[in-house]
Amino acid sequence: MIDEDILFSEYNKIIPRYIDLGRSLQQAFQTLLYSANLDVHLIDSRPKSFESFIDKIKRKGYKDPFQETEDICGVRIVCFYQSDMEKISQLIHSEFDVKEYSNKAVSSELDKFGYRSDHFILTIKKDWLKAPNYRGLDGLKAEVQVRTILMHAWANLSHELAFKKEDLPDEYMRILYRLSALFEMADDQFDHLRNGLKGNKLTPQRYLNKSSAWGLKGKEAIQRLISRPVQPRILANEFMVGLDQGKYNISDLTDLIYNLSRVKTDDVCELIEYLNISIIKAEFSKTNLSVYANLLAVVKHSKCGINYVDGLTPDFEIIFSRVCNGTGSDLRNIMEALFMNDKMQLWRELTDENLQEIINVSTLNQLNNLLTDALKSKNKTSKQLGSDIATKLVNLDLSELMKKSNLSEVSMFNNAALTLKPQLEKEIFEQIFPYLEDIIESEPDETKIISKISLILRDFQKLRGFSEISHFAYRLLQKITQLDLLPYIQSSKEGLVHLIYWAIMIDKNISRKWFYKIDKHIWIDKILDSSEDEAFWIIWNIWQVEQTLACSFINEDSIRDKMATTPYGVCVLIFCGISIENTCIIPSQSTYNINESDLTKFILQLKVLCLPSNQDMAINVRSKIDLVKINEKIQKSLILHPTKELFMKILDDFEKITNYGQ
Fold it and tell me: Residues in domain RelA/SpoT (predicted)?
């Protein structure tokens, strides 16, 4: 007997992981198909609904539903041609662990027509699971369906009609078979038509259907070739002549190869073989690095592949000299060019001395671009490359780079490097710490200084969470609180609340001394200038470590009036000993999945309900919430949080007053 309530509870626990799996697979297929130069109509994913899940369990008689149901996560890929299905199938088998594979077309009877589709049951490969967006997906299965756009239409139409073949009279079955045969024939004919068009000798105008990249000279020069078919050998010769005459450039060649690879893949390799490679490589010295990198990328993703990229890649010494002599010193572009080769041979040739020379002609912002590109990439190899680069960089001498960098650039570098490789915290700290004062003074926008300082503290401390204080965050806080931050606090537009929060998390004693270093009237002016929500958090965070100071703010009539305008401000007044009678505050009922910030506000509302004047309201609220779950939320969310004991006492007081009322 199936207990649907228990199953529903278990289903709700696991379904978020399957939703993440579907989204991750959808993104992965978008990247893989794009890299393989395969255009598709649709890639989508969906989690199996609970109703469908229950129906399948009952129909199949599953004993272990969550292990035996293999399509809780479903992904569908709809392509244009049948011949692309085979390419996509090969890609899936090479990139994923395929547990089961079935082809509906192969399994259909010879005299029957209808739905044709490839079905895969697969899991993520183990080496993918190290990437942040694949963590927690180990062992989860997904069903991937691949079909053509015509079969997709057939499936949707037959689903809309909602027929069962065994219930159809013969005359309708005959109509059904005729229709399905037409769909299958149309699929075959579209493939035949595409292959037939590929067999034609196309003119350069058709090769260059995306001719915008060619520019005016390229268009004019190519006009004389439009009227006649062109073999790859002739086209290569014409391009080399035009290159010599200054009519064409590397960007034109990139566009030519790209468009040719989409309509006549076999001709691309022949075209490249007839090009004068030594002359093409000589153009590297006159070409923007990113433009040449695009050429290598297009060749790599064509049928020719990596072998032809090796032939077109300039010698390492030439690439390196371009960076170090000040020409094209954008580090991101040079690394893009190096990374186009899957073997990364050129990257391995970058010694520490080479990289140090590159750093000497670069800016920290250029390093940031390189690291953030790797950080944003969905490609696991790119992330690993970014991690390797970060490791090399922080072990070199960045002192001159740090001296001429501002706080925004250093904050971005700190975040990207720590995210790519958290184990580098000591090395990164040692690069930043000696120059922190100069870095702060170099920031052109004073209003951002407090915000950026709080981000640097956060990035070091978040590696440890609440359970352990980061030694490096502690030392940074010590130094920061010794600096004169008063002008920056006065001019800051954001970040003060976060700076106070992270300072308290790192060390209460340092924070307490720092709070008193700033004149009380400066604090009051800042609180009055802040929004009601920010004002609440400033006072509440200070109250956690120095109640006397927080209460002295509240004794100011202007701040008291500001706090009295919001429920959370009223809570602060109560904590500071201000008696508030008949306060109408009703806490949110959605307390079980809220974040730490909202949990804090919710518990403070319960404190207000503990007032004798609010007892009736407290009893009413008690009937709508689950104190056990709220207790669990506090225990889980605020493991070593400074307010945990206080919150537990509030919860205990609330339970007592509501029990007394009952």
Answer: 45-169
pLDDT tens, position by position, 14-61: 888 898 898 889 878 887 887 787 888 888 888 888 888 888 988 888
Place of tokens 């010879």: 110
- Residue 295's alpha-carbon distances to 253, 306, 340, 366, 484, in angstroms, are 7, 12, 9, 22, 52
* Side chain identity at residue 374, one-letter code: A
Residue of 455, 467, 381 whose CA lies nearest to 640: 467
Order the strands of the 73-79 sheet from edge to edge.
Answer: 40-47, 73-79, 142-148, 118-123, 97-103
> Tokens at residue 349, please?
């040739």
- Name the H helices within 576-639: 596-609, 615-622, 627-637
310 in Cβ contact with 341 (< 8 Å): yes
Q: Are 289 and 333 in contact (CB under 8 A)?
A: yes
Q: How confident is the model at residue 229 (pLDDT cuts 50, 70, 90)?
A: very low
Tell me what the mean pLDDT of segment 535-543 comes to.
Answer: 84
Angle between helices 567-575 and 547-554 (to 10 degrees): 120
Would you list the DSSP string of 176-245? Answer: HHHHHHHHHHHHHHHHHHHHHHHHS---HHHHTSSGGGGHHHHHHHHGGGTTS---HHHHHHHHHHHHHT
DSSP string, 464-510: TTTSS--HHHHHHHHHHHHS--HHHHHH-SS-HHHHHHHHHHH-HHH
For 181, residues 6+ apart whose C-beta sits below 8 A from its C-beta are 113
Asked if 252 and 215 count as a contact pair (C-beta separation under 8 A), the reply is yes
Which residues 6+ apart lie within 8 Å of 64 measured at CB?
Answer: none
CA atoms of 359 and 114, how far apart (whole Å): 62
Residues of the chain with CATH 3.30.460.10: 4-194
What distance in Å separates the CA atoms of residue 42 and residue 39, rounded to the nearest whole number? 9
CATH number of 4-194: 3.30.460.10
Distance CA 83, CA 118 (A): 12
Q: What is the model's pTM?
A: 0.49
Provide CB contacts within 8 A for 591, sequence distance 6+: 599, 602, 625, 629, 630, 633
The percentage of the chain sitting over the pLDDT mark of 70, rounded to a whole number, equals: 75
Distance from C-alpha of 87 to C-alpha of 36, rounded to nearest angstrom:
9
- C-alpha span between 475 and 505 (Å, rounded): 13
Token pair belonging to 20: 């993440």
